[in-house]
Amino acid sequence: MDRRLLILALGMFALGTDSFVVAGVLPEISQSFHVSVGAAGQLTTVYAIAYALLSPTAAAVFAHVERKKLMLSGLGIFILANLATAWAPNFAFALVARALAGLGAAIYAPTATGSGASLMPPEKRGFALSIVIAGLTFSTALGSPIGTLIGGLADWRWTMVFVSAISVVAALGIAVSLKDIPTPPSISLKQRLAPFADHRIGLTLLTTFLVQAGNFALYTYFAVIFGRATHGDTLILGLLLVLWGTSGTVMNLVGGRLVDTIGTRKVLAVVLLALIGVTATLSWTSAALATAIVAIVIHGATSWGQLAAQQHRLVTIMPKAGPIVLGLNTSATYVGVASAGVIGGVSLTVLGAQSIGWISMVLYVGALIVAEVAHRVIAAESFSNGKADRADAAALATTR
After folding, report:
1. Please, which residues have CB within 8 angstroms of residue 37's CB and are 6 or more apart in sequence?
2. Higher pLDDT, 23 or 274
3. What is the value of pTM for the model shown?
């Protein structure tokens, strides 16, 4: 396996750990800054908003910058922002630092995935992308639980130092091992956002938003929702996060095969129905460790199980604009994450921790409806195009 891809994946691992680890140390952050757990969850929100909004913007603004310099700059901002979070004197300072971390991630992530693909010949670019992105998914199975254990056994601030340390190693690897990375053609921000005009793309991105809002409304407040099962034990919480991440990683690896076997529509339907079932019963299953384990494994697998199907649907709609629509899908994901922090925080404050499962269920129901509408619109568009192609062929034959 190409060492350069592993180095790029390590950077994605750091970004993923940073995205997910706050959920595991939320009670400690809340106590440290003397704010509610719901308010502490907004650290995830500002990070996600910065990432979602700045990712396409940064890609357009810095399109002319050499790829290696751009990745090192992104990781540099990311490292400093996480250290600033670790030593934040107050909650307001921590919020600003998290936004800066989102900026660093927005610069690094799309550059790393694009660079990974450019390092390999065309027939191996799909594999290259899967390796780089695997760093992100693997962070849920390993990075986030380790960060949670560090925060529980020592202090949550050391969790942020841990994320920075991983990023430093990735930056050193990039500085030493990566040399000539082709700079891709410049694409304007207007061109990057143009796919939104296609209602098929819009409906698919709306599905992603609703699914991820449901996923992370639950995940952001994971420690609180499953507090009855863990009894505040950091080790048990860390192991539950490992289960969630591992089941998601496994499902993410087989998701593409399922799409090839039974199709995008069926995969999304099965996954979303499973998520609806899990969240509908969460107020009961989260009360005891045995039932919590079952719920977490199913939720972890199905919450990641939609990823391959959504990506496949987008690339099928616009095959020539694959990198752009996949970038928009990532932005939709982080808008969902940002919304989840707010939705979950309000639900936690007003209705209590067990209400979050019901809120997620409503979001999943919405996603199922939109996904089905998207399928019907895509099918109707394909039928119309096919009919037009047949008419053109018939007209051509007549003229001959």
Report:
1. 26, 27, 30, 221, 224, 345, 348
2. 274
3. 0.75
